[in-house]
Design a protein that fits this description.
Helix content is 6%, strand content 38%. By secondary structure, the protein is mainly beta. The strands form 6 sheets. Strands 18-19-20-21-25-24-23-22 form an 8-stranded mixed β-sheet, with no helix packed on it. The protein is globular, with a radius of gyration of 21 Å. Pfam families: Pectate_lyase22.
Amino acid sequence: MKSFLISGAAALLLVGAASAQDLQTAAKPGAPEPPVEWVDKATGHRIVRLSREAGSSSLYFNYNAYTPKGDRLVFSTPTGITAMDLKTRALTKIVEGKVRLLFVGRKTGAVYYEKALTVDPMGPKAVMATDPYTKATREVAKMDRGGLQTLNADETLLAGVAVRTDVAIPPNLADALPKNPDDVKSADGKELSYAEGREVQLNARLDSRIPMEIFTINTVTGERKVVHQATDWLNHLQFSPTDPGLLMFCHEGPWHKVDRLWLVRTDKPNDAPVKIHTRTMNMEIAGHEWFSADGKTVWYDLQTPRGEDFWVAGYEIATGKRNWLHLERNAWSVHFNSSPDGKLFAGDGGDSEMVAHAPDGKWIVLLKPRAIPDVAGIHAPGAEHLISPGVLDAERLVDMRGHDYRLEPNVNFTPDAKWLVFRSNMHGANQVYAVEIAKAQP
């Protein structure tokens, strides 16, 4: 059947991007160079600027940015891709030119990225891999359409999403979808806030029922296979960090409407996806999911209901056991993450216009889990089958009140769990920063 090319911002809305917000801000005219290192006066924690080029960016919160040895951090710059020695902080440009950094392989440490072959951001691309130590580079595959979002644990498969080409799609569909949330009106013509307009925009995309597919690309042979097809909006793909055949994906759209979290096996043909979370109340939302470093648990942002009660929820893959960790409104974050040993969590904060409407939420926070034990050791009948509750106690690390949250900070732990890496425009242009988890010494 005839297929249609969809380009630009419309392509991202139709296919979906892993990171919805990626605001680029410029350095303020006449502003001094951002500091390289300082101690946050509000928190007492040391912060360092890792990047040296304005417009640099660390990876999305669930993408691996570290080499297997734990000695290199990789991030993107306006002129290419840079690797930083985590001990010396020495920077090495390993890829020159405008490319899209994808992730770092968990087995070989190769840095994977895309080079566009046309002006269409969702059009043909070459998928490349570069050794961060030697800069040796190879072409992994060529991809005619879609967007890659994940790499499996043994680096044998890449996975992405694409609009299907074997089903006719109206050529004017992209034009019919709302492009700018500020221009969206309610059904009765009333003005909406930006956040409400964004929900209408997402809902229109979801209701269009565009036929999509999840595909894999073999990194050795370049073979492309379709794993799953649906008219649900497929997005947010993540391979398990330890199980090469286990893939997580989401149904994108308004979170209070979709069943978002799903697991599927790529090594079992026709394997039916498994839903991770089932809604139990109206306006309950779950999303921004990620795997624990050992691959045993899926963690996600859970709100019961939306904007009122906040949890970081865990689903143990092997047993189905659930663990819900409660947090206060001002500690809610756009994205959460967990340390390599699973003992700590972190969040990148959020402004008052976001879903939590936190009055004082613009902070990078360290979150320490605290279990809620049975009183006097007295167990409820069937307690082993109930949700295990807990609390996340928050410690503020970075004052983000100067940050524009249209750029999501995307916090992640370094391999030694001593620092949190994030991106910020707190000094004007986008830069990559890290905050030390231990308090600075006098």
